[in-house]
Design goal:
This protein has 188 residues and is of the alpha+beta class. The chain contains four helices and seven strands, in the order ααββαββββαβ. The protein has helices spanning 6-16, 22-34, 77-82, 159-163; strands spanning 55-62, 65-73, 94-108, 117-122, 128-135, 143-156, 170-174. Strands 5-4-6-3-2-1-7 form a seven-stranded mixed β-sheet.
């Protein structure tokens, strides 16, 4: 799910001001959580049934193979904040697409996410630019694309490696909510 950057900004301010004791940091983190620094709306968020999310056929062309996934599209800020939170099972042929309009550095975390996920960061040219494999459930560690991306794809943890999906693989989906990705060779 997309991350709320506010707790890290508060911690950075504390570090700049010289408050570095464990007690000081714990106090700031506690205050950040009490002041809404938790994942965007996670404590009061109303979860939307995934059946209401738009769906797409996601196609990833890896060396020598073409893989198809049934994917939910997290096409609104609320859906992106929810992501795959509280999902306890993700079949191997399913995933979620997080479109980024305009392309931007994406930052995710795994709060309230029960299953490990592979995150595929898709560059504006439609190719996978970075893969974070087996993101740890419930982790608040920031997972960043490091560069502007047009989409982030989440699939089951370990799926990318098991299927041979690597950096450079071509990604597209239909319906495509973020513009024209290049057509896969031999496919129109």
């Amino acid at each position: 799910m997309c991350e709320n950057p506010e707790p890290s900004r508060k911690l950075e301010r504390v570090m700049r001001n010289g408050l570095t004791t464990r007690a000081g940091i714990a106090a700031v983190l506690t205050a950040a959580l009490l002041m809404g620094g938790a994942p965007a709306g996670a404590q009061s968020m109303t979860l939307e049934n995934l059946d209401h999310f738009p769906r797409a056929t996601l196609v990833i062309q890896a060396p020598g193979h073409v893989y198809r996934f049934r994917a939910w599209i997290a096409d609104t800020p609320a859906r992106q904040a929810q992501g795959l939170m509280f999902v306890r099972d993700l079949p191997a042929d399913q995933g979620m697409i997080f479109p980024m309009r305009p392309p931007q550095v994406a930052k995710f975390w795994m709060a309230n996410t029960y299953i490990p996920l592979d995150m595929l960061f898709v560059a504006p040219d439609g190719r996978i630019e970075k893969i974070t494999a087996n993101a740890k459930p419930f982790s608040l560690k920031t997972i960043s694309s490091g560069a502007p991306v047009e989409a982030v794809i989440e699939i089951g943890g370990g799926e990318a490696r098991a299927l041979g999906i690597t950096v450079g693989a071509l990604v597209q989906w239909s319906p495509n909510p973020i513009g024209d990705f290049p057509a896969l060779p031999g496919r129109q």
